Amino acid sequence: MNNGLVRPMLNSDLEAILEIERASFSTPWSLEAFKAELKDNEYARYLCLELNGQVIGYMGLWFILDEGHITNIAITPNYRGQRWGEFLMRSVMENMLEQGMERMTLEVRVSNSTAQSLYKRLGFAIAGVRKGYYADTGEDALIMWAELGLEVYVT
Known about the structure:
Elements: E1 4-8, H1 14-24, H2 31-40, E2 44-51, E3 54-64, E4 67-75, H3 84-98, E5 103-109, H4 113-121, E6 125-130, E7 141-147
Parallel strand pairs: 4-5
Antiparallel strand pairs: 1-2, 2-3, 3-4, 5-7, 6-7
């Protein structure tokens, strides 16, 4: 994954982030939502995946005590299936471990088997279900957790 760079998200990235968001989700976050997370949420960390100067993905997390909660992650459609999501996840997980984080969690649609496979490959395990979690469809979400620092995270 040469040339891939994971870096903090900037306000100047938001146009590209919104394009990825709209291409990825049926109920995309608004510009205002991202701005509020970047400006007002002391727990939030938003990161961009840049390739050859172009933002091709991003991830949002909340750092709470020694845990990270992934709020959103997406890769632009043209770069999906090329392991960039895994590159982004591994990079963030390594960074979190360096910052003293011990665990991370996320919710994923029960129908999103592609994402579930990635998360399982990275050491996440299903811990429960949030019934009707997704407002757009009423679909359930799987709650997944991973312990950081386990052998599976070595790249």
